[in-house]
Fold this sequence. Notes:
5 helices
Amino acid sequence: MDPTSELPDSFSDWNVQVEPHPGTRGVLDLVFDSPLLEKRITNRVYLPSSYRPDGPALPVMYYLHGTVEPALDNPVVGPVTQHEALLDAIGPGGGARQTDIFRFEEQRDRAQYLLVAPDTAYEDTICETCIWIDGRPDPVPTAPPATAETLPADSFLHQELYPLVEALFNVRHDRGGRGVCRRFVEADPARVPRTLTPSRQAAGGDQRGGLGGDPAVASGRGAADQGDRPTARVGAEYGAFCAA
């Protein structure tokens, strides 16, 4: 059954679509018109093998990609950047490519939670330098930008993506069933939303794997934490999410 058929009226103007991600079993593309971002945004949903629409509600881990270089986020330079791993990750469609690196789909049988990755269109990355916070206007609008991108990115996560995922899928709605991890490219964006809104998620962590996509290389782990107490392990092998 199409999960969008039973969406509440509050999502009626978002033109929500849920379709299989091409060539990948158990992976969906969730696409909708974001009122806050004023753009149509593509997001990826990885369903574990244990997921059932009528089974136990599962937790959700939100994977946030890192910085994408605006000057390189252009399909024209793709034939060049694709030959160097770092440039490929921060180049055209970098949000999607930083998600591809970890091959989450290969860990469906081990996963105990859904993984949702926002901003995964190959054609364009919306959150290039937003670091997943609500950016502020530049102090001198006519000067080169001195701050991160001024998107309402944190509000997008909490006011749009979280509620929509919880309306579409059989997942937990409580704080203990929601976590955030991020690609380790720049500062600490996963800990920013957790710090600003600790009542909304119980775990946060880093994905520090290599750029090659080989599990032997991309096997770095970051200990997620709730305050100072470890509550989960989030790693490139799509391990168990066990938030308190």
